[in-house]
TrEMBL record:
This is Response regulator. SUPFAM superfamilies: CheY-like. The keyword Phosphoprotein applies. Keywords: Phosphoprotein. The keyword Amino-acid biosynthesis does not apply.
Length: 131
């Protein structure tokens, strides 16, 4: 069984980033690394062990989530990373557009921090759990 353990959070809003870190590391017992900007994250990820999953904000300064995805996919092993986009945009067209950028899943803000770890774990088990 391929167990979800390593998650990276890329979110420019410090409050949301810390909430994600808290709920994922405490409730989900995941190993979580955080970045305030995608431009910083891509540099680190290019020379570090890649996570299994990235929670990626859509709109950030310097580099958006959709701009980040193709850069990640070019890194060795980057194509295997599950990307969950976080957005307040809720129209079907916007969600479809985000999925077309290469996201594996789109989670809407605001999210329930008590349920998010379970939701991510369930998604992982369905799509990546079997080896």
């Amino acid at each position: 069984m391929n167990v979800l353990q390593r998650i990276v959070v890329i979110e420019d809003d410090a409050d949301i980033r810390h909430l994600l870190l808290l709920c994922l590391s405490t409730l989900g017992a995941f190993e979580v690394k955080e970045y305030p900007l995608a431009s910083i994250a891509i540099k680190d990820l290019a020379k570090d062990t890649l996570p299994q999953m990235i929670l990626l904000d859509v709109m950030m300064p310097e580099m958006s989530g959709p701009e980040f995805i193709p850069l990640l996919r070019k890194i060795k092993g980057g194509a295997d990373v599950c990307i969950v986009m976080l957005t307040a945009k809720v129209s079907q067209d916007e969600l479809a557009s985000l999925m077309a950028t290469g996201a594996d899943f789109v989670a809407q803000k605001p999210f329930d921090p008590m349920l998010l770890p379970q939701l991510l774990q369930q998604y992982w088990e369905v799509h990546h759990g079997a080896v």
